[in-house]
Write a structure and sequence with these properties.
By secondary structure, the chain is α+β, with helices and mostly antiparallel strands. It is globular. The strands form four sheets. A seven-stranded antiparallel sheet has the order 15-12-14-13-17-18-16. The chain has a five-stranded antiparallel sheet with strand order 5-6-10-8-9. Strands 1-2-4-3 form a four-stranded mixed sheet. Helix content is about 30%, strand content about 20%. The two termini are about 40 Å apart. The chain folds into four domains: about 100 residues, Uridine Diphospho-n-acetylenolpyruvylglucosamine Reductase, domain 2 (2-Layer Sandwich); about 110 residues, 2-Layer Sandwich (Uridine Diphospho-n-acetylenolpyruvylglucosamine Reductase, domain 3), CATH 3.30.465.10; about 230 residues, Vanillyl-alcohol Oxidase, Chain A, domain 3; about 45 residues, no CATH class. The longest helix has 17 residues.
């Protein structure tokens, strides 16, 4: 969507109490002929409505560039007037960091960068950073029946998804979304534009794949697509009955964990997750790509679910086309999504736990997690759910890359828990009981297995973490400290900022007596 510059200029004269630096920023954008929106603009609410209604921020303005050069000029104008900058792709941030994470940030909307083009020789897809996952899936499938690993929510923007991870049910076979990035067009804090891949600007290539919001704005991704399967073995089953016995539930989960670690029946083609909530629901959903459905149904699935009690008639194992599989996983949301005016919202708090292949969950941790779930079932507590996805085990392509290959360095994961609490009607007002409820889910695991070496997944970002806690949990000391050194080189003015951005924490590997001196020099 291109909005004429003159439309916004008209609103400047009607505004009152505009801070002088905002006026200067607007003047700079006008001189560069770049469109932008202010609070008086008719499209302001569409541009700034957060996905998570609990965390609403008011940007200084929202810039709407149409070219790489305009993105660079937008950043330069903002930095010149001392504004921090954040890009906004799909606007699906759990913490509203795409709106800045605090008031007064200059937001650069990428919705005009929406190209999807697959090279028919290399099958590398050029994808604009303003696109959404559902549109990407449809677009690349139309151009040669190609596929990419990505999440199930079609309205999520590719920009934030692919620069921080990008898990999908196809990731055990194809890797994370960021693992398919062959190259990127990136705009730096000084407004310069570069191309980065494994050999050109490799430090940028490293940083943008896992910590992109701290280092630059991607305008285009170049992603290596895969041949999509004609059909997929999709499976699901209702396991509610198993929740009635904590002993059976604990034993069944441990059997499943043993299966994924040791059974030759598990291949990288198989991926699945458990869903449970405090209304008494428990289910398993997954898919097997390029599989023999009969063999999966008769041999693999019974071994995978040994010990659980599927509700009679609830087991569904069927062949679906690739696009039908994506649509079933998306639920009620259509794959085709608008680039602007996205109108899906929730009011929630989420956390994550990443467990390790080398430290499988203990019986105590499993039991305490499920006991906590059951203790909150059908009582007067806010609604919540947990999704437990298998990331690692047995040749999972998520764990194949070296931890030093990208800023996403968590290449030893086994299970990833997303723990999520929300208001009863998904809207405001906020229910203050939700945060301690979700904290309790994480604590049930962490306190039971203190040697578990647990980490967290930054796409299920937790706004309650301090910058140092976020650095420790999302990156770990080695990766974070490399990113911190790159940040001081690539963004010395700390233009790209949010509350948990790289450089809000000092070097994690420094002893306490040296940390204060470091912060004094670099903050």
């Amino acid at each position: 969507m291109f909005v004429p510059k003159i439309l916004f200029c008209l609103f400047i004269k009607c505004s009152i109490n505009i801070k002088p630096q905002i006026v200067k920023l607007e003047t700079c954008l006008q001189q560069a002929n770049i469109s932008y929106a202010t609070q008086q603009s008719p499209i302001w609410s569409n541009l700034t409505a957060p996905y998570n209604l609990r965390l609403s921020y008011t940007p200084a303005l929202v810039v709407l560039p149409t070219t790489d050069q305009q993105v660079g000029q937008s950043i330069s104008c903002s930095a010149k007037e001392s504004f921090k900058v954040q890009p906004k792709g799909g606007g699906h941030s759990y913490t509203s960091f795409s709106l800045g994470g605090q008031d007064g940030i200059a937001v650069v909307s990428m919705e005009n960068f929406n190209e999807i083009e697959v090279d028919q020789t290399t099958f590398i897809a050029k994808i604009g950073a303003g696109q959404r996952l559902g549109n990407v899936a449809l677009g690349i499938h139309e151009q040669g029946k190609r596929g990419l690993p990505h999440g199930t929510c079609p309205g999520v923007g590719i920009g934030g998804h692919a620069t921080h991870g990008g898990y999908g049910y196809d990731s055990r076979l194809w890797g994370l979304a960021l693992d398919t990035i062959f190259g990127l067009d990136v705009v730096f804090a000084n407004g310069s534009i570069i191309y980065a891949n494994e050999t050109q600007n490799p430090d940028v290539y490293f940083a943008m794949r896992g910590a992109g919001d701290s280092f630059g704005i991607v305008t285009n991704f170049y992603m290596q697509t895969n041949e999509a399967p004609e059909t997929v073995t999709y499976f699901t089953a209702n396991l509610n009955e198993t929740l009635k016995s904590i002993d059976q539930l604990t034993s069944a989960f441990l059997r499943t964990q043993d299966f994924v670690i040791n059974s030759p029946l598990l291949t990288k083609n198989i991926s699945f997750g458990f869903y449970t909530d405090n209304s008494g629901a428990l289910s398993i959903t997954g898919m097997c790509m390029f599989c023999n459905t009969t063999f999966f149904k008769e041999t693999v699935f019974p071994a995978l679910t040994e010990g659980v009690t599927p509700f009679p008639g609830s087991i569904n194992i069927t062949d679906l086309s690739w696009l039908d599989t994506l649509q079933v996983l998306a639920g009620a949301d259509p794959l085709a999504e608008p680039l602007d005016g996205y109108n899906i919202h929730d009011t929630f708090y989420a956390k994550s736990v990443v467990t390790k292949e080398a430290e499988p969950l203990t019986e105590e941790a499993v039991r305490n997690f499920w006991e906590y779930i059951i203790s909150k079932t059908n009582i007067n507590t806010p609604p919540s759910f947990s999704i437990i996805n298998l990331y690692g085990a047995q040749d999972s392509q998520i764990n194949v890359p070296s931890p030093s290959a990208s800023a996403y360095s968590d290449r030893e994961s086994l299970w990833v828990f997303q723990n999520y609490g929300y208001t009863a009607n998904h809207a405001l007002p906020w229910d203050s009981r939700i945060i301690p409820l979700i904290d309790g889910l994480n604590a049930a695991i962490g306190n039971s297995q203190p040697t578990g070496n647990f980490s967290a997944y930054s796409k299920y970002i937790d706004p309650e973490l301090t910058a140092t806690q976020a650095a420790e949990q999302y990156f770990g000391p080695k990766t974070h400290d490399k990113l911190l050194r790159l940040k001081t080189e690539l963004d010395p003015g700390f233009v790209f900022w949010n509350p948990q951005a790289v450089r809000n924490s000092g070097l994690l590997s420094l002893p306490p007596d040296e940390l204060e001196d470091y912060q004094a020099n670099y903050e």
